[in-house]
Amino acid sequence: MQPDLLVGAPGGAPSLRSITPRASALNHSEIDTVRDGDPGVMVTGTASDSHTWNLVFLQLLLEELGQEVTNLGPCVPDDLLVDEARRRRPKLIVMSSVNGHGATDGMRVVEKLREQPELAGTRIVIGGKLGIAGAGNTRHTAGLVDAGFDAVFEEGAGLGLFRSYVAALPVGASR
Question: What is the pTM of this model?
Fold first, then answer.
Protein backbone atom coordinates (compact mmCIF):
# COMPACT_ATOMS: atom_id res chain seq x y z
CA MET A 1 0.00 0.00 0.00
CA GLN A 2 1.35 3.41 -0.94
CA PRO A 3 1.01 6.15 1.67
CA ASP A 4 -0.94 9.27 0.75
CA LEU A 5 1.31 11.49 2.79
CA LEU A 6 4.30 11.19 5.04
CA VAL A 7 4.73 13.88 7.61
CA GLY A 8 7.62 13.97 9.97
CA ALA A 9 9.32 17.34 9.80
CA PRO A 10 8.52 19.96 12.43
CA GLY A 11 7.32 23.43 11.47
CA GLY A 12 4.23 25.08 10.07
CA ALA A 13 1.04 25.69 11.99
CA PRO A 14 0.77 25.36 15.80
CA SER A 15 1.34 21.85 17.10
CA LEU A 16 -1.26 19.86 18.97
CA ARG A 17 0.69 20.53 22.15
CA SER A 18 -0.32 24.20 22.10
CA ILE A 19 -4.07 23.62 21.88
CA THR A 20 -6.36 24.05 24.86
CA PRO A 21 -9.48 21.88 24.94
CA ARG A 22 -12.78 23.69 24.57
CA ALA A 23 -15.15 20.90 25.56
CA SER A 24 -15.52 18.32 28.27
CA ALA A 25 -14.98 14.57 28.02
CA LEU A 26 -17.17 12.78 25.53
CA ASN A 27 -20.10 10.61 26.39
CA HIS A 28 -20.09 7.47 24.25
CA SER A 29 -23.90 7.58 24.00
CA GLU A 30 -23.66 10.97 22.24
CA ILE A 31 -21.31 10.02 19.44
CA ASP A 32 -23.44 8.41 16.73
CA THR A 33 -23.34 10.95 13.90
CA VAL A 34 -23.58 9.24 10.48
CA ARG A 35 -25.77 11.57 8.38
CA ASP A 36 -26.74 12.03 4.75
CA GLY A 37 -24.95 8.89 3.57
CA ASP A 38 -21.55 10.35 4.39
CA PRO A 39 -19.59 7.69 6.26
CA GLY A 40 -17.81 10.44 8.12
CA VAL A 41 -14.61 10.43 10.08
CA MET A 42 -13.91 8.39 13.21
CA VAL A 43 -11.57 9.93 15.81
CA THR A 44 -10.07 7.70 18.49
CA GLY A 45 -7.42 7.54 21.13
CA THR A 46 -5.18 4.53 21.43
CA ALA A 47 -5.77 1.76 23.96
CA SER A 48 -3.15 3.02 26.40
CA ASP A 49 -3.83 6.76 26.09
CA SER A 50 -6.27 8.38 28.50
CA HIS A 51 -5.94 11.92 27.13
CA THR A 52 -9.15 13.51 25.90
CA TRP A 53 -8.32 17.11 24.97
CA ASN A 54 -6.53 16.05 21.77
CA LEU A 55 -9.58 14.09 20.66
CA VAL A 56 -11.95 16.96 21.40
CA PHE A 57 -9.68 19.32 19.47
CA LEU A 58 -9.52 16.96 16.49
CA GLN A 59 -13.29 16.55 16.50
CA LEU A 60 -13.81 20.32 16.49
CA LEU A 61 -11.18 20.81 13.78
CA LEU A 62 -12.68 18.12 11.56
CA GLU A 63 -16.18 19.52 12.06
CA GLU A 64 -14.85 22.97 11.16
CA LEU A 65 -13.54 21.38 7.96
CA GLY A 66 -17.05 20.11 7.18
CA GLN A 67 -16.65 16.50 8.28
CA GLU A 68 -19.16 14.42 10.21
CA VAL A 69 -17.27 13.03 13.20
CA THR A 70 -17.71 10.08 15.51
CA ASN A 71 -15.39 10.41 18.49
CA LEU A 72 -14.75 7.14 20.32
CA GLY A 73 -12.82 8.88 23.10
CA PRO A 74 -9.67 7.78 24.95
CA CYS A 75 -8.44 4.30 25.96
CA VAL A 76 -10.31 2.51 23.18
CA PRO A 77 -9.53 -1.22 23.27
CA ASP A 78 -8.35 -2.59 19.93
CA ASP A 79 -11.31 -4.93 19.52
CA LEU A 80 -13.81 -2.13 20.20
CA LEU A 81 -12.08 0.09 17.64
CA VAL A 82 -12.18 -2.66 15.02
CA ASP A 83 -15.83 -3.46 15.76
CA GLU A 84 -16.91 0.21 15.57
CA ALA A 85 -14.95 0.74 12.38
CA ARG A 86 -16.55 -2.31 10.79
CA ARG A 87 -20.01 -1.14 11.86
CA ARG A 88 -19.62 2.51 10.83
CA ARG A 89 -17.28 2.08 7.82
CA PRO A 90 -15.88 5.62 8.04
CA LYS A 91 -14.02 7.16 5.14
CA LEU A 92 -11.22 8.15 7.54
CA ILE A 93 -10.02 6.92 10.93
CA VAL A 94 -7.89 9.41 12.84
CA MET A 95 -5.89 7.95 15.73
CA SER A 96 -4.28 10.36 18.16
CA SER A 97 -1.77 9.83 20.93
CA VAL A 98 -0.34 12.12 23.58
CA ASN A 99 1.27 9.66 25.98
CA GLY A 100 4.20 8.68 23.73
CA HIS A 101 3.01 5.14 23.05
CA GLY A 102 1.17 5.95 19.82
CA ALA A 103 3.60 4.09 17.57
CA THR A 104 3.41 0.90 19.61
CA ASP A 105 -0.38 0.98 19.94
CA GLY A 106 -0.85 2.14 16.34
CA MET A 107 1.23 -0.63 14.77
CA ARG A 108 -0.70 -3.25 16.68
CA VAL A 109 -4.20 -2.00 15.91
CA VAL A 110 -3.72 -0.92 12.28
CA GLU A 111 -2.87 -4.48 11.36
CA LYS A 112 -6.18 -5.60 12.88
CA LEU A 113 -8.03 -2.86 11.00
CA ARG A 114 -6.37 -3.73 7.69
CA GLU A 115 -7.38 -7.38 8.08
CA GLN A 116 -11.06 -6.35 7.78
CA PRO A 117 -12.41 -6.50 4.20
CA GLU A 118 -15.11 -3.95 5.12
CA LEU A 119 -12.38 -1.37 5.74
CA ALA A 120 -10.49 -1.83 2.49
CA GLY A 121 -11.50 1.67 1.34
CA THR A 122 -11.00 3.40 4.66
CA ARG A 123 -8.05 5.72 5.07
CA ILE A 124 -6.32 5.40 8.43
CA VAL A 125 -3.99 8.05 9.82
CA ILE A 126 -2.20 8.55 13.13
CA GLY A 127 -0.66 11.56 14.75
CA GLY A 128 0.50 13.24 17.90
CA LYS A 129 3.21 12.10 20.27
CA LEU A 130 4.05 8.73 18.78
CA GLY A 131 7.21 8.09 20.80
CA ILE A 132 9.02 9.48 23.81
CA ALA A 133 11.94 11.18 22.01
CA GLY A 134 10.14 14.50 21.56
CA ALA A 135 9.02 16.72 18.69
CA GLY A 136 10.74 16.27 15.37
CA ASN A 137 11.47 12.59 15.95
CA THR A 138 10.39 10.89 12.74
CA ARG A 139 11.74 7.43 13.38
CA HIS A 140 8.26 5.92 13.66
CA THR A 141 6.89 7.25 10.39
CA ALA A 142 8.15 4.58 7.97
CA GLY A 143 7.22 1.70 10.30
CA LEU A 144 3.70 3.02 10.78
CA VAL A 145 3.19 3.40 7.02
CA ASP A 146 4.59 -0.09 6.45
CA ALA A 147 2.15 -1.39 9.08
CA GLY A 148 -0.83 0.06 7.18
CA PHE A 149 -1.33 3.75 7.95
CA ASP A 150 -2.02 6.02 4.97
CA ALA A 151 -0.42 9.03 6.63
CA VAL A 152 1.53 9.84 9.79
CA PHE A 153 1.45 13.28 11.42
CA GLU A 154 4.28 13.32 13.96
CA GLU A 155 4.26 15.67 16.93
CA GLY A 156 5.49 19.12 15.98
CA ALA A 157 4.64 18.78 12.28
CA GLY A 158 1.83 21.31 12.62
CA LEU A 159 -1.72 21.17 11.43
CA GLY A 160 -1.38 22.57 7.91
CA LEU A 161 -0.63 19.23 6.28
CA PHE A 162 -3.37 17.49 8.26
CA ARG A 163 -5.87 20.14 7.15
CA SER A 164 -4.77 19.68 3.53
CA TYR A 165 -5.08 15.91 3.84
CA VAL A 166 -8.64 16.17 5.16
CA ALA A 167 -9.61 18.80 2.58
CA ALA A 168 -8.58 16.40 -0.19
CA LEU A 169 -10.90 13.62 1.03
CA PRO A 170 -13.74 12.75 -1.29
CA VAL A 171 -17.13 13.86 0.01
CA GLY A 172 -19.68 11.21 0.88
CA ALA A 173 -17.72 8.04 0.22
CA SER A 174 -14.67 6.04 1.09
CA ARG A 175 -11.80 6.18 -1.38
Answer: 0.77
CA-CA distance, 9 to 172, in Å (whole number)?
31
pLDDT digits (tens, 9 = 90+) for 100-151: 888 999 999 999 999 999 999 899 999 998 887 776 667 788 999 999 999 9
Q: How far is 22 from 62, CA to CA, in rounded Å?
A: 14
Give strand ranges (E) for 8-135.
41-45, 69-71, 92-97, 123-128
Domains of the chain: 41-131+140-156 (3.40.50.280)
Output b/e per residue, 8-46; b: 16+ Cβ within 10 A: bebeeeebbeebeeeeeebeeeebebeeeebbbbbbbbb
